[in-house]
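re: ur question from the group chat, yeah i did fold both. here u go
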Amino acid sequence: MSDGPGPGSGQAPPADGAAAGRPVLSLELTSMIEEVQAHSGAVYLLRTDEPVLEMAVHAGMPRAFAAPWERVGLSAPIPVADAARERRLVWVGGEEAMAGRYPRIAVVLPYPFALAAVPVATESRVYGAVFVTWPGAHPPELSDRERAHLTAACDRLALRLERAAAENRPIGPEADVLPVPASGVADTLGSVEATRMVARLPYGLMSLDLHGRIVFVNAAAVELLGRPAGELLGTLPWVSVPWLNDPTYEDRYRAALLSQQVTSFVAMRPPGEWLSFRMYPSTNGLSVRVTRARAMADMTPGAVQSGPAPARLVTISQVLSLAGALTEAVGVQDVVQLVWDEVTPAVGGKAMVILGSQGGRLHVLGHRGYDDPHVVERFDGLPLTERTPGTHALTSGVPAFFDSQEQLERLYPGRHETPDGFAAWAYLPLIASGRPVGTCVLAYAEPHAFPADERAVLTSLGGLIAQALERAQLYDAKHRLAHGLQQALLPSSLAPPPGIEAAARYLPAMHGMDIGGDFYDLVPTLPLTAAVIGDVQGHNVTAAGLMGQIRTGVRAYTTVGQAPHEVMSSTNRLLIDLGAELFASCLYLRLDPARGRAVMARAGHPPPLLRRPDGRVRVLDLAGGPLLGIDAAAVYPTTEVSLAPGSVLVLYTDGLVESPGIDIEDALVDLGGLLSEAGDQPLERLADEVVRHNAAARGRVDDVAVLLLRACTGP
């Protein structure tokens, strides 16, 4: 398999100069595979321009087996990414461990095999990672000898890559390495006699290479397959034989190679003859025996189950689509809907439930497919100590499969009191970050057997769902926290002075956590009342917290009697002293309804609009200073504006009038037209109209705050 150092040689690889023209990565990889008696592996190199690992060489198996992971993000939940990112050896001891820890791999390759991923790194730099795989018969733990060999080999490879980088000799992708059948085992005469012997056997024999292509077929196999030898040699059997064109049969070939275990299936040759295929794998291909099988109707149930493997529940393309869709799921209800739309139909289910827990009790996070929702919802709030299949799967992290109602009721006698109308169930624990975060229940309309391969696929799907659910629960928790924080920082109600009506609206940006730095307030002081609106840059908790501090500062400076320009200057210095390195725009005004006027100061904020009682609207061109937080010595001049009874002042943040593709002047004209036509409406209704009508607000990428003030016409 390799011309590199043999197992236990103890020799360091030759210097790169001595190995000029030789493939460095493939030699190191094949040597590593031989040393630990693995059967496949790959070397990944970390790109220098982005956090991505790219497969540079693959050995032992066709690259197609690892095709979905040829290019892997450094943050991806994949063993090689974990190894490189965390600079540690990652060991996955078998099919069950893979399904629980790396469901994206297990759902595509639900076969018994073990895997180790090792970082290729020096003390100062990570160059990539290596993975190697063993058949399913490998012990569940990695031996000290294997661990030492893998670590030492990857350390040697890292040093070679470091030397190559220092000498500006990039080492890049190399040709994959596949083992070739042994030659020279028999002489020519012996080979001819072996061929004659095989030809005399009463059953069909084929030999497949690692890619699944037919490289030998005897006369009996030709007769059974019904195709001339010339049309079979060099082809894939599921391509050249039409009735073998089923993903199940290709899946058996992949399972045999990866697990290095004998696999089998039966297939019907039209019009009604059943053939049995048994695959005997080795590290350089497969031998396949083809014989006639009894008619399926004559088989006992046990024989039927032991013959063909179950059809793949999902294809690779479906898995990749599902993984992508779950990645885009934002909240818990998005995950519930995606499981119903994507997973349940793919596995043949007719209903599903997602369960979670909080405070020691079971919670139904969502369900679909039940004619009577109360059948499911009655379990909401059930103590986790209750003995039910849902609570057991959630607390133990162990999947449970029930082929029939009788089987379920035998283990859970109380279940017959709450029938749901279904006949088989799969309870899949949703395990993320090493802990159960919920349970996915899939219900089937008819009794349904769950063979081992199907259980592995379902368990792997549960891992994908778990990762999405964990992210969704975190998002929902952050959303609730953000919403509560935003509501706490904004005034719960407005208390305008006599002679003034007020209405306000706040809309978060369409993207993000529904939290931002926009704020407004009315500060009732005697004899005058102050109004303020502002916008701290950013859409995060930091911006919201700073907004709360500014709002508190404005209130304090107003309460102690500072004039509008002094309030702005004091708030500016406060923002600089806080050292937040964020800027804020602000518009502050002192209302004097008795005298029909308002005194305003502006710090880089959009100018307000004034609607006069006769319906005319104008943009108030106010003098102003720079944004708050830039210059401690900034001056903020004031402007006095007439506020006749019936006038409406419209204060807003830039999210109302600024949006990609929309000219701000056009947006202001549009807003002025609305105020001119609808400005006589009750102020609360007008506030709704303002935020609903504005085109920029409908597609908003920024927060929107609006504060409307109307001078009353009477006492």
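okk and heres the other one u asked abt
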Amino acid sequence: MSLLVVGLSHRSAPVSVLERASLNADAQLKLVQDTVAAEPATEAAVLATCNRIELYADVDKFHAGVAELSTLLAQHSGVGLEELTPHLYVHYEDRAVHHLFSVACGLDSMVVGEGQILGQIKDSLARAQDSHTAGRLLNDLFQQALRVGKRAHSETGIDRAGQSLVTFGLEQLAAGADVQTWVRGKKALVIGAGSMSSLAAATLARAGVTEIVVANRTFERAERLARILTEGDDTDVLARAVPMDSVPDELTRADVAVSCTGATGLVLTADAVAATLEGRTGAPVAETDGARPTGAGATVVREVREGAETPLPGAGAVDENCPLDLSPVPAGFSVMGEAAVAGMDAATLEQHGAWAAGGTAVDRSREAGRPSPEADADLITALAATAASVGRIPERRRPEPVAEAPRPEPVLFLLDLAMPRDIDAAAHRLAGVRLVDIESLADASADAPMAADVDMVRRIVADEVAAFGAAQRAAHITPTVVALRSMAADVVAGEIARLEGRLPGLDDKHRAEITQTVKRVVDKLLHAPTVRVKQLAAEPGGAGYADALRTLFDLDPETVASVSRAENSTEKNRGPA
């Protein structure tokens, strides 16, 4: 059997696809159950977070396993296989181990180094164990991934390379300002009471908000989170719980709202946010430019011909005597530029050169200080020669930035950490609103600098992958070694029984001494070969030693299989580390 992972994440798929492919708890359970029921797989686990969905399985056939796991992901996510396939990635054997260890260390997170993924891996293992779909391989894999992640955080400064998604989101809301300074004195609304919402509430409390209101569909969970926040030793925040239907009223009083629920639809629509703003200001809310802002001082770019101070004849400015058809030329582009001469032959361009030299429309449109008609004629002749040799005229242009109209200062800050999204993306167009969601966080973190500690973590991951592979290969031969020793014990027992038949008068003392001697001989004969075969099996390419041992000693395959089944049964009942 071999480890296979098929999945998609923020690195391989757009947020819109991830959002549609997200799986709730029931869907995850059904997915792993259907996976182990499929022919290629014997174990399965799902790792589903806000920016990744991955299906891990122990399969006996690679190609059949990839096809089956991909199909199951498509079926349970509701995204068609043809649409999903371009965004899927596949890892096998050591590459699959390397991938999960990297994920556990935060190297594959949207915010490098974030530690929340460890809790999500632990939850994934617990769900697989509860559904009895995790055997020896996945138990070993996920528990080792947890240990590798903890090692990375304790032995390196990976925490300095990035923050939790919550902290990063708050930094984006603060738009470069110090978060603690920015958030001080503000009132916060937290929608949801799960792990991410609880982390957001605790982060806001430590940052210095004056009040936190927690809303959740299960009011008791909201109350419990509010009580934890109030009783915390490291904050003095005022926290209270409200039912979910109080969100619109509470939003009119909040400065910052963080939402992360398991809802399948929108929790806050753009209309609801607009109504909230109208309730705060008493004035209708306008929409700004539909383009998502990219930060302070964002600009738009238009292309202008280098050196062109006045638009030359183009569309709507055609001289009837001009031999060139200038109607397709956009206003503001030179008649000598690419837009005019693309596809023109050299003879036509030479005609235009002669016409320009005669002092016609182009000459009359010149400003003082511009080149003479003769210079233009020479230039066009050169252009004609170029067109004859390369077929088109490259035009040199430079971007000219034009500042877009500034957005009004926001009065309501929204952080959407849910997948699928809780807050309508259209809310970012409302004047007075700043919305940060998973999509904008992905854009903002794409070019985040990598710390030197990341290289240290990568080395840890590489070492741990090698160690895990060696341990798995050694463990693969263990059932065969156990079966060999069991066969040797049966041989000893049979020979002692034959000896007693031949020597019926043998007393207990001598019988025990003979039995112990025979056992020592057998143990010494088997010790060196079994130790050595374990060492050889742990090396790359050592999988064949188990088969060789079974063949050399004519071991019963069912005996070996029964040992493996007993080990798997023990692993499935083991709790997460």
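fwiw on the second one: The CA atoms of residues 319 and 361 lie 6 Å apart. The longest strand covers residues 41-49. idk if thats what u expected
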